[in-house]
Amino acid sequence: MPKTDISQIAEYLFISSWPLAEHSAEIRALGIRLILSMHWLRPSRKLNQPPLRLLWLPTFDNPLFPIPVGILAKGVRQAAPVIQDGFGVLTHCRHGKHRSVAMACCVLIASGLNADEAMRLVAEKRAAADPNAWYIKQQIIRFERYWQENAHE
Hints:
Layout: E1 6-10, E2 13-16, H1 24-29, E3 32-37, E4 53-56, H2 69-84, E5 88-92, H3 99-110, H4 115-125, H5 134-150
Parallel strand pairs: 2-5, 3-4, 3-5
Antiparallel strand pairs: 1-2
């Protein structure tokens, strides 16, 4: 069985390409308890068996359909208590290049980094990451503004 393509971004944050059901043991072994799936196809149900929890946030990697800031905020709000409890969060999309990277940057922003710091860290830690694709960067910056205005809701 091939290993997953998981990159650790921070102690509590990971990005991967599409995980398979067979990868659930490897994911659990990393201390991950929440998977934020940014792909438009629903991942395997085996990735949603305790202690793992899967939040499916179907989005498209397409400049014509930018990732809604509300979807990014929903993922961040679900990730926060998991991180506070000392566990990890995995974001994934098809290739771990755009949508999962946007979500990971937003988690980092909610954790105290600014958008530029978050994008730089993700790009340093994951070779495939492209947070500077204009339509991805645009949504990360929009999320940062949204979070600064609404984080206490």
